[in-house]
Amino acid sequence: MMGVSRSLLAEGWEWPIHGLRHTPEAGTSGWYCWTGELSDASDFFVPIHERHLVERIPDLAGYLSLPPGTRFLVAPDYVDIWDDPSVLDT
To answer: Domain containing 64: what range?
Structure first.
């Protein structure tokens, strides 16, 4: 399971897609993916199985195998992947 923004699950979502991976715990992968502005609202992310997100957006398949402490930003013809150890502290 992972957290995905409601905006990414909506019809007509827009690029880019942001992703960050915390340390997996309690049956989750640690992944959070979103589009648009990140929010700290309690209902910003909804749980979804990774498989279902990949069915919707196959371009994400390879990125979800990246290790904890990784972030990515993906858009058509653009990919940026970097380490962010600060996400391992939370």
So the answer is: 2-88
pLDDT confidence band for 56 (50 / 70 / 90): very high
For 10-47, write each residue's pLDDT tens digit: 999 999 999 999 999 998 999 999 999 999 999 999 99
Nearest alpha-carbon partner for 44 in 15, 87, 7, 82:
7
Structure tokens at 24: 């997996």
- Using the 8-state DSSP alphabet, how is residue 27 labeled? T
What are the structure tokens assigned to 25, written together? Answer: 């715990």
Strands of the sheet with 78-83, listed across from one edge: 45-48, 2-5, 31-35, 17-21, 70-75, 78-83
How many structural domains compose the chain? 1
